[in-house]
């Protein structure tokens, strides 16, 4: 069964196609906040054509979105391209228990990350997702979501430095060459990338202490597009899962849509 997985982030939309748990392809496009359904359908057609797969081959689809205004546009495009109604992932599909947390603004991306990480690593654990923002979510030993953190992402920090100062340049995040920068550009890159690695290491230690665990007993799962830049500079081991959110969407789809059905109608 081929499942189309759509992860709508603030900066990018990740598009994946899985068949029986195996990834056939993954692609991404910039999040077009002014798109209509035809624009996104054209994106889908281009991506599927590049992988020599027809939209008619899709058996079902699921969307996770932190940009809810785009959901109707994307749903319409998917229906036109595949003939299937996409499942829109929401809190009712998430079986993570919660301790003392206001869920009203909790991003769907974080919830889906938790589903995927728990499925593979159990609990307790920490999940870091390095996207537009750097988000951290924790599951305690009983599998409860008990809080986390949100901080500016690696690229967002660089963007803010350029926008809020008179002389610092606009830069794209890149791999540091050494710990210490030897010019303004490398200092900015290192501060953003290595600074994020140091933050993750330090918070990992503090959360382990709060949970009365040795840090080695608290697995850390790292995901997100910028994870590859940060991972080499971390002191503590981390499990890098670049497809974590897509895996979580595939799990949610399997749990919520009967596999005997050729069309998802959950909304």
From TrEMBL:
Its EC number is 2.7.1.33. One of its GO terms (molecular function) is pantothenate kinase activity. A monovalent cation. Ammonium or potassium. It is found in: Cytoplasm. Substrate binds at residues 107-110, 184. Keywords: ATP-binding, Coenzyme A biosynthesis, Cytoplasm, Kinase, Metal-binding, Nucleotide-binding, Potassium, Transferase. Its cofactor is NH4(+); K(+). The keyword Kinase applies. ATP binds at residues 7-14, 132. It comes from the Bacteria. GO terms for cellular component: cytoplasm. CDD domains: ASKHA_NBD_PanK-III. GO terms for biological process: coenzyme A biosynthetic process. Pathway: Cofactor biosynthesis; coenzyme A biosynthesis; CoA from (R)-pantothenate: step 1/5. It catalyses: (R)-pantothenate + ATP = (R)-4'-phosphopantothenate + ADP + H(+). The active site is at residue 109. K(+) binds at residue 129. PANTHER family: TYPE III PANTOTHENATE KINASE. Belongs to the type III pantothenate kinase family. Catalyzes the phosphorylation of pantothenate (Pan), the first step in CoA biosynthesis. Homodimer. This is Type III pantothenate kinase. The gene is coaX.
């Amino acid at each position: 069964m081929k499942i189309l997985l759509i992860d709508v982030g603030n900066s990018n939309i990740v598009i994946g196609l899985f068949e029986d748990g195996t990834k056939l392809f993954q692609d991404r496009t910039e999040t077009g906040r002014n798109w209509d359904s035809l624009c996104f359908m054209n994106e889908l057609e281009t991506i599927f054509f590049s992988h020599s797969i027809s939209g008619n081959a899709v058996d079902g689809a699921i969307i996770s979105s932190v940009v809810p205004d785009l959901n109707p546009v994307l749903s319409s495009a998917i229906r036109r391209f595949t003939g299937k109604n996409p499942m829109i992932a929401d809190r009712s599909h998430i079986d993570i228990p919660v301790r003392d947390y206001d869920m009203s603004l909790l991003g769907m991306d974080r919830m889906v990350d938790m589903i995927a990480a728990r499925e593979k690593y159990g609990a307790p654990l920490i999940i870091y997702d390095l996207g537009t923002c750097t988000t951290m979510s924790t599951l305690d030993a009983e599998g409860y979501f008990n809080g986390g953190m949100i901080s500016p992402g690696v690229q967002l920090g660089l963007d803010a430095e350029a926008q809020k100062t008179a002389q610092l340049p606009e830069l794209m995040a890149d791999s540091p060459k050494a710990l210490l920068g030897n010019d303004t550009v490398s200092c900015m890159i290192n501060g953003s990338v290595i600074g994020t690695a140091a933050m993750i290491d330090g918070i990992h230690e503090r959360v382990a202490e709060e949970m009365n665990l040795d840090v080695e007993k608290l697995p850390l799962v790292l995901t997100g597009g910028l994870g590859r830049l940060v991972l080499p500079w971390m002191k503590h081991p981390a499990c890098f899962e670049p497809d974590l959110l897509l895996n979580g969407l595939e799990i949610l789809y399997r749990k919520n849509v009967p596999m005997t059905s050729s069309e998802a109608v959950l909304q």
